[in-house]
Amino acid sequence: MSVRRDVGVVIVAGGSSTRTGGTELKQFRWVAGKPALLHSLQTFMARDDVVSVVCVLPIEYAADPPPWIFQCDIDRLMVSTGGRTRTESVKHGLDDLPDEAEIVLVHDAARPLVSDATIDRVVASVRDGHSTIAALPVVDTLKQVDEQGFIVRTVDRDGLWRAQTPQGFPREVIVRAHREAAARRLSSTDDAALCEALEIPVRVVAGSERALKITDAADFARAEALFTLLE
Length: 231
Known about the structure:
Largest sheet: 7 strands, mixed
Radius of gyration: 18 Å
CATH architecture: Alpha-Beta Complex
CATH superfamily: Spore Coat Polysaccharide Biosynthesis Protein SpsA, Chain A
Order of helices and strands: EEEHEHEHEHEEEEHHEH
Number of helices: 7
Shape: globular
Strand content: 25-35%
CATH topology: Spore Coat Polysaccharide Biosynthesis Protein SpsA, Chain A
CATH class: Alpha Beta
Strand order of the largest sheet: 5-4-1-6-10-7-11
């Protein structure tokens, strides 16, 4: 059965990675057998519905990417230059997607072990007409803490979810959200928030613990352990 190739992917890998320590960017460090960024690139490139993957890199690497980045279908690969903020970087990636990309997925390179099943759920929801993010419900008790480290109150966790990526959108929706964000000088840590600012409904589908975000050095060991687990 033929698959419609209409999904464009923007992989955001433009951060400076200062919290992981060392001089190497976290998206370039090896985890579970290959550079973190390459995991995401190859996962999305393996999909028949993906028409193009735009990899947004820091400006100093965009013109001369590491050679391993081309260990995928280079005919569907585009390298774009990161901006001053994550929001700007995504906008640059959107600008480089081909016209055939009617569905847009935005994914953080800091989540190298995202599963194909999670991507399937996001894409299926967008095909039903919904802007959609992968997320997990909060299961821990949440405490608000003051600057001195004392608990202020317990936060009700009912209805709270931890946002992950990919986040998927009909192309016209995410392009409009970024256009409005630029006009209003808005920036956000994820693209769903830009849609929320425009009162565009965003649906949640189940993510995966495997898709943890690598933020500090200890997360690399956690990712190695999670790599061995099935979804």
